[in-house]
Amino acid sequence: MATSRPQTSADARSGERHKRIGILVHPTRNVDEPLREILDWSERNAVDVVQVATAYPQRPIAKKGDMAKIDLIVSIGGDGTTLAALRAGAVSGRPVLGIACGSLGALANIIAADVTRALDRFTAGDWCPRSYPALWIVRANAEPLFALNDVALVRASGGQVRLSASVDGSLFARMAGDGAVVSTPVGTSGYAISAGGPLLSTHVDGYVFTPLPKHGGFAPPLVIASTSELVIDVAGAFAGARLEIDGQVAGECVGALTITFRPGVATQIGFEDEEPLLVGLRRRRIVLDSPRLMAEAARDYVSRSAET
Fold it and tell me: Catalytic residue among 11, 66, 71, 79, which?
């Protein structure tokens, strides 16, 4: 993966006029309102709008555009759409503005009602670059891959996945079961925590190996330093193992995967006044309090309301 330097807020303040934005949209979700806002804004500001050509399925909304001539990528949908845009931005060195349309995730950080304001702030240079690392995956006799969210090795059908995991040459565990997922910090809020792994702050320089349900043994989720190398050796099995990169099937996998951490691969548009990640996870009820504490808080609220 060849990546040019991602644009930063300093670039946006340099006085260069932004002339073209690329849009990437969810294939089925209703994106008419934010799309209309973007088209109206672009007409007022003499900015050309094109559609980003990627493998991610989309419904056609504009002519296809050359990534080399795009100043900004705008995704409209959920986390999957934003992730596809970030992958396109990582390759082209362009920043991404993620517009949420009915999303519960953590990547699409701008609500549809704030589209025009966000574009105005980007044009004025009033934004902060949110830099995301990637996992670099090397396989024998195959092109390298990169993942911004996670790499998953899962059983292809009824048989177990048999694998061993080593860090910097030291064996961590051998296991048979459903497989494993390796996540960047931002990726830990998805597949990893649903499988019982830890949630990492996006400021942590490291990544996580999380075993999926397995047949006996003990191998807890492992936080790995950004400077360390993870090797996952997948043995041949009756059903085989499926490799998934950022939620997309990348083919079958037998043999060794060498995974390393690379900082600063993709850039997302952020703002100083947007809500922190943990606040967003609680608001979306991805992180929930104990039912006992929630019941006590509800009783306290009723009591205070009765007193007033």
Answer: 79
